[in-house]
Every structure is written in C-alpha cells, then in structure tokens.
Amino acid sequence: MRLYLFEEHRTTKARVVLDTGTTGLTGHGVAHCNPADEDVPEIGDELSASRALHDLGRQLTTAADGDMEAAQTTQQWTPGVTRGAP
C-alpha cells in the first residue's frame, strides 16, 4: 500500500493505492483549511489520508461482498464484527 499526499493553496489531497497482486484499488481523500483557521499542514495530511483510507476500506468491503456473492457464500459483513477472532 502506498500513500501519496499533495498540498496546494490550503488544500491537501491524498491518494492511497493498494495492489493485492490480483486487484488494484485506489482511495481518495481531500481536506480544505478553513480561511479563518491557521494553516497547519499536518492536520490536512491526517484528514485527507484518513478520508482516502476510509474510501479504500469502503471499496474493499464492496469487493468482498461481490466476491462472496459470486462464490455463493451466505456470510455477510457486519460492521464492528471480526470473524474468526477470539
């Protein structure tokens, strides 16, 4: 997984790329600094990166759901539940 950050004019954009070897997915996130706030680049980095990772997570869940449907499994993803964990 690779994370790319781009900053320009109080806006930070993030792109996170995941290559599983069989599938490639890309998540995107953006953070804008409010004109009334002090420009703190680290905050923009954190917000845009977290949004890109959230986007990637959503895509992974959608892909897994499609794969399970194609495999005709009855198991469905439930938020907050980790299967196989003690």
TrEMBL record:
Region entry Disordered, spans: 65-86
Chain coiled-coil ranges: none
Listed name of the protein: DUF1876 family protein
